[in-house]
Structure formats: structure tokens, C-alpha cells
Amino acid sequence: MSRADKEKEREGEKLIVRNKRATFDYTLEDRFEAGLVLLGSEVKMLREGAAELTDSWCAIENGEAFLKGVNIPVMPQAAFGHEAKRPRKLLLHESEIEAIRKGVEREGMTVIATRLYFKNGRVKVEIALAKGKKTVDKRESLKEKDAAREARAAIERARGGGGRGAPPRAARSDGRARPRRPE
Predict the structure, then answer these.
(1) Phi, psi at residue 16, to the nearest 5°?
(2) Residue 170: which pLDDT band, with cuts at 50, 70 and 90?
(3) 3-state secondary structure at position 127
(4) CA angle 115, 116, 117 (to 5 degrees)
(5) Could you give the CA distance from residue 85 to residue 67 in angstroms, rounded to a whole number?
(6) Rounded distance between C-alpha atoms, residue 126 and residue 124, angstroms
(7) CA distance 161 to 170
(8) Would you list the DSSP string of 50-97?
(9) Please, are residues 125 and 113 in contact by the beta-carbon 8 Å criterion?
(10) Per residue in 43-58, pLDDT tens?
(11) 177 C-beta neighbours (distance < 10 Å), count
């Protein structure tokens, strides 16, 4: 089962967008779920699946958390439109804001958005405290990813699944296909 399938499985959630660069560029630690204060045109664009999280981060200002850098495209012909990359207030408990602030101040971490989704009809964002990876760590992540992909392909070939990379079934000398092995 792929990671995307696992994310789609979550009950009552509909994924809008996932920040694919987050796990590559950062080591993710504590995660928080937050609501967003949005305008109507922003929600309509999110229902269409239009958003980008790649450059998004969270900032704590005057005891409130704001999500910055999220790109929600402007809705064409909207009477009361919105700015595409405006700061959006996050709805978090005071204790969660304090935990984020401590992580950023003491440990030198950053806060990034990892997923944007609908949960029971409301827009939610998953933010995570993260430490930046060095180039060596990124190379290691790529090696692990390649090794996992090769292992999955080898297992699929061994099963005779006929998936990508599997050799075609050999025919008999009389031209008929070999019978399948019982599993």
C-alpha cells in the first residue's frame, strides 16, 4: 500500500494538497492539526483542489500563529476576491502555540505545512516542527527510497504479478502458454 493510499484512507478527510518537499528537505518531528481562517473564494478554490504548499511556513506573532507562503490562486470573477499568498491565521490552542514557539526559539527549528485537507467539511492544515536536512542526509534519503522501490519491484517479479519490470510469461515450444502455478 502506497503512502498516498494511506493518506486517502483517513476517515472523514479529503486531501487537497501535500507538501512533497517537506520530508525530503526536513526531518519532521511534532505535528499539529490546525484550522484556518479563510475567505469564501479561498474555500471555493480549495474545493477545486488548487493550492500549493511548497514554500509555506508558520510564524508566531503576538501570541497568534499565521501560515505564510501558501499559494491559493485567485478565483476569476469573484466579487470579493482574495490575495493569493496572504498570511492566514491558524486556529490552535494556546498550549500548542506555546509548544511551537519553544521549539522554534530553543531548538532552532522551523514550522512548515505538510498537508492541507478537508476534515468533516472544514479546511485543516497539518503543520510540523522540522529541522533542515544537510545535503548528505538528502542523499541518504534518496538511497533509501531507491532501495525500497527496487525491493518492491523484486517482490512483484517473484510473485509473477506482471507489473512493471516483470518479464513476460514464456510460451511452450508448441506455442501454448504455460499454466499458472497455484498460489
Answers:
(1) -95, -55
(2) low
(3) strand
(4) 115
(5) 10
(6) 7
(7) 14
(8) --B-TT-EEEEETTEEEEES-B-PPPTT-TT---TT--EEEE--HHHH
(9) yes
(10) 888 998 889 998 899 9
(11) 9
